[in-house]
């Protein structure tokens, strides 16, 4: 009996919220609601609605954002009575980033109905196709609701109860402002893209990607992307804002480096920016593929933004005037990010202006960055105009100097022309004398040509006679047969003068090796060199010297071994061994083969001498 009385008394503490008929909207924050933090994440709806559990619901007027536990489940109890009204009411949750909102609600003491809200569910599961999480309520009714909230990051648990006309008016105004915001992003992007196509400066492409990244991030945190771009991809929706935020930081950093030219104007800060960007990129990849919960640490972007802001101030103070609007732009953006961070850290109170401070910062930053780019173009144009003016002035001075020089040159040309005319007369007389002498020289040259022709014929005749009479010394001999290739050509021509026939298979077709005049059989592949089966095979000294040894031997040994050794700069034993091969050839086959070979060579020598002469 006492327990029953206690439960009844607890329930009486929860006085239903009565909404006046003239109230268009009532907004309840977590501090005004009866809530309970389930740290075990094990409680079910049956547990929390039981009479014995009601005493656990309490108000927390001192609840701050840093009191929110991401690892807990929050239960909110809300009893309210709607007045009579010609239309419906809307129960709305403002935070579009809450993962899961399960609403158990009953009307006028009836049965509980469950509604699954949150961006972890497909957008099509919503009862009202709006970016916020909304439920439709009937007027002139009493409601009892238990709301289960789960989120991986801070959840702004605010519940609004508003009339349908107020909801429509608020939604239209909100989407109208969004249209202006995203329209500005599209217009500025197209503007910078057109500038890039006109002047082909890559920084405008970087800036365009940065602006599009800003729009992408705003679409994610506003819930508009969840509504229009990927309504049936809740898993991707959980990651999209982290990807978009990294894209903002990446493209803003690349654009800033390019615009400020930090590599030249601030090399130390440039190295720090590149290093932190690499670390941030590695953290992004790790969060994307391994631990998406790291995306909730949004405040780390302050590090790179602060460094870029400091770099812009440093570059501006060093005299780079286009950086002035850049400093203002990044100062505004830095303030927007800092304000959002201070809200998350509960340093400043939550308000609509503070919540949308980042959007406002983005708009102002884009405008000032556009001014910065335009200011840079204006400064470059002014510098160009000054340079053109200096060029024009210098050109005018050059024209004056050129005119003065031309007048002097004209006088000198007249004087030179007179001198040239006088000298032309002298040249004509000199040319007549030269022509006369040329005719005399031509006659003498004709006589010399005739004498040269007769002399050449006599030399050829003498040379041929000496070849055939075998009276050439070593120098005269090698002056004609100078190379190994000439001797190989004689050997090959003499060896196969009657045609080629393979020593292995008697085949008569071959492939010629132009480098050593060897012949390879097309049938069996046997390769036969021009020295094979001759006394010249495998000799270790030059063929012209071997030919001369044969020549001197057939010439009845005009030279002794010592003389040949001195003449040809060869070892005596080497000459002696080769002469033995010559003698063996003569003993076996007589002198006919070697005589025929040398006579064959003589004819080629004679022809060669004739060609040379």
Description:
By secondary structure, this protein is an alpha+beta fold. Helix content is 60%, strand content 12%. It has 18 helices and 14 strands. The protein has helices spanning 2-13, 45-49, 164-199, 202-222, 224-228, 234-260, 262-265, 267-289, 301-317, 323-344, 352-355, 357-468, 474-480, 484-495, 543-554, 561-568, 572-589, 592-612; strands spanning 17-18, 25-29, 34-38, 58-59, 73-82, 88-93, 100-107, 113-117, 133-138, 141-150, 158-163, 510-513, 518-521, 527-528. A hairpin with a 5-residue loop joins strand 13 (518-521) and strand 14. It is elongated and about 145 Å long. The model is unreliable at 1-12 and 609-613 (pLDDT under 50).
Task: Produce a short descriptive summary.
This protein has 18 helices and 14 strands. The chain is an alpha+beta fold and 613 residues long.
Distance between the termini: 145 Å
Helix-and-strand structural type = alpha+beta
The proportion of strand residues reads: 5-15%
Radius of gyration: 53 Å
Which parts are unreliable, with pLDDT below 50 for 5 consecutive residues or more? 1-12, 609-613
Report on the biggest sheet: 7 strands, mixed
Global shape: elongated
The total of beta strands comes to 14
The residue-averaged pLDDT reads 79
Bin the helical content. 55-70%
Number of helices, where a helix is a run of at least 4 consecutive DSSP H or I residues: 18
């Amino acid at each position: 009996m006492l327990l029953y009385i206690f439960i009844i008394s607890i329930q009486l503490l929860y006085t239903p919220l009565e909404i006046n008929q003239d109230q268009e909207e009532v907004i309840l924050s977590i501090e005004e609601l009866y809530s309970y933090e389930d740290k075990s994440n094990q409680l079910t709806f049956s547990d929390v609605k039981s009479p014995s559990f009601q005493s656990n619901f309490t108000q927390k007027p001192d609840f701050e954002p840093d009191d929110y536990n991401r690892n807990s489940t929050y239960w909110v109890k809300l009893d309210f009575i709607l007045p009579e009204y010609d239309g419906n009411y809307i129960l709305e949750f403002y935070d579009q980033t809450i993962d899961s909102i399960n609403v158990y609600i009953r009307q006028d003491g009836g049965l509980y109905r469950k509604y699954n809200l949150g961006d972890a569910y497909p957008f099509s599961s919503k009862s009202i196709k709006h970016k916020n999480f909304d439920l439709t309520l009937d007027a002139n009714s009493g409601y009892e609701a238990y709301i289960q909230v789960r989120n991986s990051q801070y959840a702004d648990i605010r519940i609004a109860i508003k009339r349908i006309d107020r909801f429509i008016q608020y939604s239209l105004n909100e989407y109208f402002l969004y249209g202006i915001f995203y329209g500005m992003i599209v217009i500025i992007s197209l503007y910078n893209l057109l500038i890039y196509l006109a002047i082909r400066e890559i920084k405008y492409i970087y800036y365009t990607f940065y602006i599009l990244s800003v729009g992408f991030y705003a679409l994610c945190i506003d819930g508009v992307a969840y509504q229009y771009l990927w309504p049936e991809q809740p898993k991707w929706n959980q990651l999209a804002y982290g990807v978009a935020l990294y894209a903002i930081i990446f493209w803003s950093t690349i654009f800033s480096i390019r615009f400020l030219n930090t590599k030249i104007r601030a090399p130390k800060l440039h190295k720090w920016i590149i290093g932190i960007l690499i670390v941030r990129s590695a953290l992004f990849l790790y969060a994307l593929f391994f631990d998406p919960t790291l995306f909730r640490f949004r405040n780390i972007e302050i590090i790179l933004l602060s460094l870029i802001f400091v770099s812009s101030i440093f570059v501006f103070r060093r005299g780079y005037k286009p950086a002035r609007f850049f400093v203002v732009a990044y100062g505004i953006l830095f303030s927007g990010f800092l304000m959002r961070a201070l809200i998350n850290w509960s340093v400043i109170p939550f308000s609509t202006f503070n919540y949308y401070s980042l959007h406002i910062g983005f708009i102002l930053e884009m405008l000032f960055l556009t001014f910065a780019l335009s200011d840079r173009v204006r400064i470059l144009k002014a510098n160009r105009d000054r340079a053109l003016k200096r060029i024009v002035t210098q050109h005018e001075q050059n024209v004056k100097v050129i005119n003065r020089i031309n007048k002097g040159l004209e006088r000198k040309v007249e004087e030179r022309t007179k001198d040239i005319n006088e000298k032309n007369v002298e040249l004509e007389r000199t040319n007549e004398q030269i022509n006369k002498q040329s005719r005399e020289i031509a006659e003498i040259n004709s006589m010399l040509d005739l004498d040269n022709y007769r002399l050449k014929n006599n030399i050829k005749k003498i040379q041929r006679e000496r070849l055939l009479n075998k009276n050439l010394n070593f120098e005269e001999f090698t002056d004609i047969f100078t190379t190994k290739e000439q001797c190989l050509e004689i050997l090959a021509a003499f060896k196969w003068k009657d045609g080629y026939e393979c020593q292995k298979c008697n085949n008569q077709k071959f492939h010629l090796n132009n480098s050593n005049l060897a012949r390879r059989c097309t049938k069996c592949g046997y390769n036969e060199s021009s020295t094979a089966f001759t006394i010249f095979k495998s000799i270790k000294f030059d063929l012209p010297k071997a030919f001369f040894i044969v020549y001197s031997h057939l010439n009845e040994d005009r030279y002794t071994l010592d003389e040949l050794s001195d003449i040809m700069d060869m070892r005596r034993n080497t000459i002696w061994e080769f002469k033995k091969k010559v003698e063996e050839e003569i003993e076996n086959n007589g002198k006919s083969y070697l005589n025929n070979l040398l006579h064959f060579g003589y004819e080629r020598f004679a022809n060669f001498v004739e060609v040379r002469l």
